[in-house]
Amino acid sequence: MPFDQTGPENPATAVAAAPARTADAGLAQSMRPSLDLAAGQLSQALRRKLSHELRAALEAGTLALHYQPRVTLEDGRACGAEALLRWNHAKRGNIPPGLFIPIAEASDLITDIGGWVLRQATREAAGWLQNPAARQVPAVVSVNVSARQLRGGVLLGQVARALEESGLPPERLELELTESMLVDGSADTLLTLAAIRDLGVGLALDDFGTGYASLSVLKRLPLNTIKLDRAFVRDLPHDAEDTAIVRAVQSIARALHLEVVAEGVETEDQRAFLSGIGCDEAQGYLFGRPAAAEHLRKTLREG
Ligand code: C2E
Ligand code: MG
Ligand code: MG
Q1: CB of 56 closer than 6 angstroms to any ligand 1 atom
Q2: Could you tell me the pTM of the whole model?
Q3: In this structure, is residue 80 part of a structural domain?
Q4: How many domains does the chain have?
Q5: How many of the other CB atoms lie within 10 Å of CB of 20?
Q6: Which DSSP helix (H) or strand (E) runs through 54?
Q7: Per the count of CB atoms within 10 A, which of 57, 265, 276, 286 is most buried?
Q8: 144 lines ligand 1 (CB under 6 A)
Q9: Who contacts 167 (Cβ-Cβ below 8 Å, separation ≥6)?
């Protein structure tokens, strides 16, 4: 039975309502903990049901990836794309990843989903390279990964298998990690990430600035990219604190030889500011919304 569109059991309503209940709705909306909170607001029974339905969708092959272009600020060229998981439920409609990912992360379901995302994204990205026009752009595909995939070295095996099956050159794949995955800095985590880097795959720190990681994470981990969370981008260029933070992140990143990707760029003013301070790349609705692979292929051809 479909969810009542306005009822508390409708996951989409719950996710939209959750941030409004926090003290700083704007900031919380862009933060992962608020998404966990939204998923946490669903009843245990509904979470279990969604988890089973998500497993069924994975097995039936009805999950899909959308891709959002990432552009070079210097010339606006599409230099890559982030794979974002989409679940169009037959009866309940589109369920946002902010709601179903935390549910999947509560069990090993996320590991199986993560493996599928890696295989699908590398297969599709390898397909873009078949297009002679697209070959001119360094089409890096970015894939979000979850903490559980790092357990017991699973992620390394998944990455190696996806690269082998797809034939995608490793330097065209980048993994997006979050600060919370890295705070413990365990030897296991560091070894796995170093092994993945040794394959030639890139590592990005996603949602930078919203988690608990300290600057030491930037020093210890074999990262090449920082993705600046959109909480810091939203009020550019007017907010004095955000402009100071973004400039500081930019100069730390440069000193550490890391690229900065600004997330959630929606306006021309934000783009101009970021470009002016030497930020390398950006992603956001101003350049393109997440869309099916076919649509992205057109963007890359035109880019
Ligand atoms: P994320 O990795 O930080 O992805 C960026 C999110 O910001 C996406 O939301 C994207 O649609 C949204 N976004 C991009 N540009 C703009 C903009 O200009 N303005 C605004 N307001 N939003 C923008 P989406 O697709 O709902 O994904 C939410 C989160 O779900 C992702 O955040 C990521 O943490 C997680 N996620 C998505 N796909 C996967 C996946 O395959 N595996 C894992 N583990 N997590 C995933
Ligand atoms: Mg991401
Ligand atoms: Mg992000």
Answers
A1: no
A2: 0.88
A3: yes
A4: 1
A5: 9
A6: helix 44-60
A7: 265
A8: yes
A9: 126
